[in-house]
Amino acid sequence: MIGIAYTQGPRREILAPVDTRALLSLATVAETGSFSRAASALGFTQSAVSQHVAGLERTAGTPLLTRRPTVAPTPAGREFLRHARQILAHEQAARAAVARVTGRDEDTPVSMAVTPGTEHLVPVAGLLAAVVVDDAAGAAAALSSGRADVAVVDGIAAPGDPLPGSGPDLVVRVVTEAPIGVLLPASHPLAGRDAIDLTTLTDARWLDTTGTSCSTSDLASAARLRLRRGTTYTGTSTDAVTSLVRAGHGLHAAPATGYAPPAGLAIVPLRAPRLVHRTEVRVHAPARAAVLALADAVGAAS
């Protein structure tokens, strides 16, 4: 139960506590677009879900969802949901932390979250309950909430800078780290260069990717540069990326060492800015023996 506070004049008043089940009902209705589907997904009655949402709307003093013609968040509802999801995530993280400290999860199978570029590091060790493939933020959220015991993430950063989702309560082990290069067709005029500055390629066309290893979004963010986007690719397949680059649809980032470019492609290392592609395995501290064993297996698989 969480108290919702608001200010009226010089006084600060505390409204009735909000049950986190009501926040969960609101979030699920918003995600499914239906009170009945939300009730089915949560195991609540539809009447209970309706009462939860109505109670939150009374607390907020404004409608949070439209009912007709479709069920969807209002502008106020979108803002309310942003905070509600953070509260629910913190509650999940708290429950997971208690389970780790008290040893209540000692006998449960180990689960793992991996980013799209790291699936090959999932060891066949008979320890996994599930493998969640997501982006770095999603893998970090799975680890924080307790949906995963181990997270393997990769991304682009300056040497020594942390990847997104790092935290003081995590044990982070670097699995691989390689300088970043530019993946381009072998026939490209720059393919024979020893190195290149990224600033000279801001007007070149780059594949518009977000979910791939070494995605253009990660590269632009780490380099603090705006890159001209070409063809959009929303998948995670490395083979699809190399095919698109080979066909001239745009450039893409790739590790400059430890990665052999496929036929018809070349990699030119970046001279500036200095960036690396890093793969990390993360676990919470403290972690049970089975979790640490899996983290060690990931390191060995590299």
TrEMBL record:
PROSITE patterns: HTH_LYSR. Residues 18-74 form the HTH lysR-type domain. Keywords: DNA-binding, Transcription, Transcription regulation. Pfam families: HTH_1, LysR_substrate. It comes from Promicromonospora soli. Coiled coil: none annotated. One of its GO terms (cellular component) is protein-DNA complex. This is HTH lysR-type domain-containing protein.
